[in-house]
Amino acid sequence: MLQMRIRSCHLHGQFVSSDNRPPAFTVKDAMESPARDIDRIVLPPASFLHEREKIQLRWPAAIRFIKERQLNEFFSEGDADVGIALQGGNYNTLIRALQKLGLSDVYGASKIPLYVMNVAYPLVDEEYERFCKGKRAILILEEGQPNFVEQNVSAILRQLGLDTALHGKDMLPLTGDYNTATILGGVRTFLERYGIVEPKAPVVDPLSLGIPIVMLPVEASAGPSLDQIVHPRTGIVHGGAPSADFHGDQVG
Question: Check: CATH 3.40.50.920 for 73-193?
């Protein structure tokens, strides 16, 4: 099973769509003129034929579609000899992390080459070859585990004979939410390794320097604490999806 996740709930937007068209073959047609094709049964030996169709026909067609329509994006390709490859859902968070490091502005003008996989699967070997040529190392920004993309990219680089160093889960958490703080930590580690940013200065204990610490009285606080003004998030379930709510009851 291959599971991909992006932050997509609670988003609002609009787009112009083409007019609805009735299907060329409807359920009514199927009921009135049923046809049986044993090659379409999803069990062996017919499923072996389906596998060949997927590998020999549909997979190459998907790769052509991605390349011809340039669904994946390259940014700042020649600006550094290291780069970051990421799934499209992490783009905004990465730009914010790079902004904190002084390596991008709020409009996405990155000083680090980026390869944004708006199509997370299948990977396009030729695009990775283009992105990795002339680079010492790349970082794969992949949320979730196992690290499917990182493993696939490792095989691609080996088959292409590229000596670009590959990093991913060795610098980022194996699981959990890739928020700005998490991505910032991993990207900083990667860029420090290759001399793009200066190592972060170690935190010095002020007591070791003999600097007195002045404690402000609670009354001098600028306002109430966050737990007094921010309501806690309640347990919520998706009414249209089978899942267990916080009471343990089944909903769906």
Answer: yes
